[in-house]
């Protein structure tokens, strides 16, 4: 094998490592985003009356998560396009 062939394999392996590392970083970012959404605490006697209003109160956080998720997903897809 030629030295050029070994260099090509090494650069391909290095690129693969970088892509895998960045995939892990994106996965961690998406996981951290969802941690801000917490299950509301409602006394068991008031669940039927209080649950709908508490879930609606979570709407802005859920919307924020969805928008952030989409932004991170777009960056992740763009990153994979550049890596090819």
TrEMBL record:
Pfam annotation, one family = TMEM175
Q: Which UniProt keywords apply?
A: Ion channel, Ion transport, Membrane, Potassium, Potassium channel, Potassium transport, Transmembrane, Transmembrane helix, Transport
Superkingdom in the source lineage: Bacteria
A molecular function annotated in GO for this UniProt entry is:
potassium channel activity
For this protein, what reaction is catalysed?
Answer: K(+)(in) = K(+)(out)
The subcellular localization recorded is: Membrane
* Topology of this chain in the membrane: Multi-pass membrane protein
The record's section on InterPro entries has: TMEM175-like
> Which sequence ranges are marked TM in the entry?
21-42, 62-78
State any GO CC term: membrane
Database matches in PANTHER family: ENDOSOMAL/LYSOSOMAL POTASSIUM CHANNEL TMEM175, ENDOSOMAL_LYSOSOMAL PROTON CHANNEL TMEM175
What is the similarity comment for this entry? Answer: Belongs to the TMEM175 family.
Record-given protein name: DUF1211 domain-containing protein
UniProt organism field:
Rubrobacter tropicus
Organism taxonomic ancestry:
Bacteria, Bacillati, Actinomycetota, Rubrobacteria, Rubrobacterales
